[in-house]
Design a protein that fits this description.
The protein has about 350 residues and is of the alpha+beta class. About 15% of the residues lie in helices and about 40% in strands. The strands form two sheets. It has an eight-stranded antiparallel β-barrel. Strand 5 and strand 6 form a beta hairpin.
Length: about 350
């Protein structure tokens, strides 16, 4: 009778397994075949066991497991053959982990019938407690192994069993089909190579050597440039000495470079001589420099002003020879604001 029930369970499990499939992390049912070894406390010899089970998944942690198993053995004394059949209902609590191995603890209750060769039999109600681990093998297949202790409520003995088996998982919703990934967008271009993408570049074609702002336009730097003129003259003379020709030349070069500039050259004298004489001499000195800029270096006349101040603006003490030499001078200054493009 027990063997007939086992055959029915096997047939039902096979039909269920073939009817549907599910992914390992999305299933509702599982069928497993187990093989193991039972170590009897007494009076039976240890025996190999096999069994079939059907599991119903409650949630990601809990599964209810109905199991039928068989074994054949003999008594430790007398050598009487015995066939044992177990039916039990277990609860498995799975411990979630990030690894492929998923441990669990199990407990349950069941019925065991042992049939002897002499046509006698007896039944036990068994409580079991154990721990095991599962590992997904890919697809719908899973490996499982556990160790169980079975305690008889009727005859007060405890047996130990080691089991290993293969499970087939099924009955869940089909695994979602992943949509084809959207084509990667084409990378944006930076056509002029200034470091700003074309979509943001408001100044296309900027030279690569220019520093640019956030919208790709060249950065401008405005600064003031200037040049000073300072030459001295011999006593009572208005002739530019050869050693100061370079100073006049540098002033002319600056003014040619910056065409919007205008210079005022100021002539001065020391305190020797009358005021009227010194005024005339200072003007002659200023006019001498103006004439050099115009005739020798091509500066337009309307860009040069010449003013004589006589002895009215000394820069040193006229009581000494060195002080008077410093006062016999022509000075001038030119400055302008220049905007430059910043480069890398």
């Amino acid at each position: 009778m027990a063997m007939k029930n086992t055959h029915k369970l096997v047939l039902s499990a096979v039909i269920a397994a073939l009817s549907a499939g599910a992914s390992a992390d999305n299933h509702k049912f599982e069928v497993h075949a187990d093989f193991g070894r039972t170590f009897f406390e007494e009076p039976l010899e240890d025996a190999n066991t096999w069994g079939l089970g059907f599991g119903f998944v409650l949630n990601e942690n809990w599964t209810l497991d109905a199991v039928a198993s068989r074994y054949s053995t003999e008594t430790q004394t007398g050598g009487i053959d015995a066939d044992g059949t177990q039916y039990r209902l277990d609860a498995l609590y799975h411990i979630n982990t990030e690894s492929l191995w998923r441990p669990y603890v199990a407990f349950g209750v069941g019925d065991q019938e042992i049939e002897w060769d002499n046509d006698e039999s007896h039944r036990d109600t068994l409580l079991n407690l154990g721990a095991g681990v599962k590992r997904n093998l890919g697809g719908n297949w899973e490996f499982r192994t556990d160790v169980r202790a079975f305690n008889s409520l009727d005859n007060e003995y405890t047996d130990l069993a080691l089991n290993a088996g293969i499970s087939y998982l099924f009955g869940g919703s089909p695994a979602p089909v992943k949509a084809a990934p959207a084509p990667a967008p084409e990378p944006e271009k930076d056509s002029d190579g200034d470091g700003v993408l074309d979509s943001k570049d408001q100044c296309p074609g900027t030279p690569k050597t220019h520093k640019v702002d956030a919208v790709g336009c060249s950065l401008k730097l405005t600064e003031t440039v200037s040049i000073d003129l300072k030459i001295t003259f011999d006593t009572a003379k208005a002739i530019i000495k050869p050693e100061f020709e370079g100073e006049v030349s540098k002033l002319a070069t600056f003014m040619n470079q910056y065409a919007d500039t205008v210079v005022t050259v100021e002539g001065h004298t020391d305190s020797q001589g009358s005021d009227a004489y010194n005024q005339k001499l200072s003007q002659s000195r200023a006019d001498s420099v103006k004439a050099a800029l115009i005739t020798k270096y091509g500066i337009s006349a309307d860009r040069v002003k010449a003013i004589g101040y006589g002895e009215a603006k000394p820069v040193a003490d006229n009581a000494s020879a060195s002080g008077r030499e410093q006062n016999r001078r022509v000075v001038g200054q030119v400055s302008t604001a220049v905007t430059k493009t910043e480069t890398k």
